[in-house]
């Protein structure tokens, strides 16, 4: 639909109950305008779509008003249309307009941003502001990098998701489990006059029924869209339930014989049965309840006296239709304990059924995947029943460690070493090897002829060495060793100290972003890295300045502190240069992610 | 003679293994801060003073060449007079032998001498002295090293370092070259030795006597120079490059600079790293 605008007659309402003001609603790409029919009325609207966050509309129904609700950050605008078709048209238009305004709203702020600046909810924004207020260090960093344009807002917070999340977790709602009361206790309400009974079915109940009775779920998926309507389906279901509740097995069997769809509900659940069989297989294979029963006669009716088998032939015929109350309770308990396995709004019956079915299928597939379950079972039986004394000692299952022939390794190393010797070196030797050996021999013969030099060390040199050695040691001893709780930082002037700490945190921040951008796969990351590099290279001279500004006695300490920062920066620069070279070497070729 | 079982334990008797770098390319290059003869004269004086400190002190010197290493001096053998003479004699013979072993004449850089070999020899002879003699001196190793680290020797050197650590032999390092040596930094750090890179090499003797002459027992009373930082970077096993970040075999802890399907040391098969694929997916989104 490319209509530039839509004009419809509508009523503007401040609330749903409000009688409303009649007028004309005009919508364009950017805004919507409402003009009341009565020109004297004060209700005039002129709102831009980019302020609108979403829209809701009322359900369609013959006797209901056609409402459209445009929601804003605070408050909303409700319009009532004359017909539903008008409403639909406007709703579609609004949806497009909102999407459109969101699109143009984003990139204006920053073109290079990875995600269009996320639409932050006010709560999110508040949280960030609060964090910044609480932590002055964070605020400083934020001011330096985000407002200084080195990092974007999103990037800055992306590394601090945890900080934001801490507050979020508090708000996460606990998921509501399934109700523990059983549906099948739902008593039909009968009006007493006619023979009709009515069951009330809520989505919650449907979810529960599907979870408890896979056969019903399967039947729903099979039948509902094609064979019967949803209403018919549930009527049949409750009819089956009703038959059960009467406990008239014969009648149930008779009904099932007539109606095969009804039979699905009346028969025992085949899917459930297979699941149970699977579970039984997992039970300790040596467990034999029947055998145990013989050991203890008290719980047998008749106290162990042989009772007559009352099962007659008729019963056997109806066996599939029998369902004990205990079975139902057990099944229900299992489902409730399992909890809500799917995370679907319980609105649409079909999606619920499908989601449940697929989650079950996954589980089953997992179990079925091990083909050798039978073998495993046999193994378990032998394991359980074996007599330890007769078994060979069992070694714990370990993967064999294979060390290859070490000669391979050392040989390759030797070759490597030799290669290295002949390899290129940046430091050029002035002489060839033989000349070098010659000169070395000359040195040796020189000392043989001349003897040890006398004096070995000139006194002034020795003094210099002694001074440099002891000064270094004593300065670190007297300034480090005096008080273990006192750090070097405290001995420095507070300005220097603060400056150092600030640089340290900002270098950390920059480096974190820098290294996290590798490997560079997009041009966005590329620009980000070069931006970060520039920022880092600005810090470099500042560190030098600090080093030079302090007094000579503590300069050594400061340089000790600054050294790791410089090293970290150097490593980053080196990596950047290397990557740059690689990039230029194979321009056009796509980096494969490995650095 | 004292029987072998009752060894003499003394806390001030030292067994000093001195490893001397005799890389001819280093000593003839511009990187060498002083001539080899001056260096030798200062070191020999230092060895003499060690022997003077305690009558029972023992010094062994191992020459670390480009292609081989060998013992060139042992104070427990030979006459007590003319020590220097015999040492220099041996050294000259060693240099000749080392040259014979040298195959190619065209080496561009200054190369790296076989530090791993001489470290192993030093550790071996320490063990031999422990097991044979009647004395049980306090051993230590002093590396006088000038040429740069050979990343190819990384594993061998690290193995020597760990065995030194196990037998509680500190490795002291005195770096003569212009660059810090990451291997020796690690060696001294791990074994609890002293790492020193002298600034004024004219006064090398002063450095040696001040820092490295004291025996291990006295060392605990002294405040010796501490290094500013230690370069802990490792070499990868596949290309022998020094790397900042790499992959490690979860079974045998071998280090690789890139992802392999199989560990070349122990043969374990690796899975595809998970993080790489997920981070790639993440990166593709914007």
UniProtKB/TrEMBL annotation, chain A:
Domain BSD: 124-168, 193-245
InterPro entries from the UniProt entry: BSD_dom (IPR005607), BSD_dom_sf (IPR035925), PH-like_dom_sf (IPR011993), Tfb1/GTF2H1 (IPR027079)
PROSITE patterns the UniProt entry points to: BSD
Family matches, as Gene3D superfamilies: 6.10.140.1200, BSD domain, Pleckstrin-homology domain (PH domain)/Phosphotyrosine-binding domain (PTB)
One BP annotation, GO: nucleotide-excision repair
Cellular component, GO annotation: transcription factor TFIIH core complex
Superkingdom per UniProt: Eukaryota
Coiled coil: none
Pfam family, one: BSD
PANTHER family: TRANSCRIPTION INITIATION FACTOR IIH-RELATED
Protein name: BSD domain-containing protein
Organism, as annotated: Deinandra increscens subsp. villosa
TrEMBL record, chain B:
Keywords: DNA damage, DNA repair, Metal-binding, Nucleus, Transcription, Transcription regulation, Zinc, Zinc-finger
Matching InterPro entries: TFIIH_Tfb4/GTF2H3, vWFA_dom_sf
Recorded GO MF terms: zinc ion binding
Compartment(s) where it occurs, according to its Swiss-Prot or TrEMBL record: Nucleus
Domain of life of the native organism: Eukaryota
Sequence intervals crossing the membrane: none
Gene Ontology CC entries for this record: transcription factor TFIIH core complex; transcription factor TFIIH holo complex
Pfam family, one: Tfb4
Listed GO biological process terms: nucleotide-excision repair; regulation of DNA-templated transcription
Family: Belongs to the TFB4 family.
Record PANTHER family: GENERAL TRANSCRIPTION FACTOR IIH SUBUNIT 3 (PTHR12831:SF0), TRANSCRIPTION INITIATION FACTOR IIH TFIIH , POLYPEPTIDE 3-RELATED (PTHR12831)
Quaternary structure annotation from Swiss-Prot or TrEMBL: Component of the 7-subunit TFIIH core complex composed of XPB, XPD, TFB1/GTF2H1, GTF2H2/P44, TFB4/GTF2H3, TFB2/GTF2H4 and TFB5/GTF2H5, which is active in NER. The core complex associates with the 3-subunit CDK-activating kinase (CAK) module composed of CYCH1/cyclin H1, CDKD and MAT1/At4g30820 to form the 10-subunit holoenzyme (holo-TFIIH) active in transcription.
Known role: Component of the general transcription and DNA repair factor IIH (TFIIH) core complex, which is involved in general and transcription-coupled nucleotide excision repair (NER) of damaged DNA and, when complexed to CAK, in RNA transcription by RNA polymerase II. In NER, TFIIH acts by opening DNA around the lesion to allow the excision of the damaged oligonucleotide and its replacement by a new DNA fragment. In transcription, TFIIH has an essential role in transcription initiation.
Protein's name in the database: General transcription and DNA repair factor IIH subunit TFB4
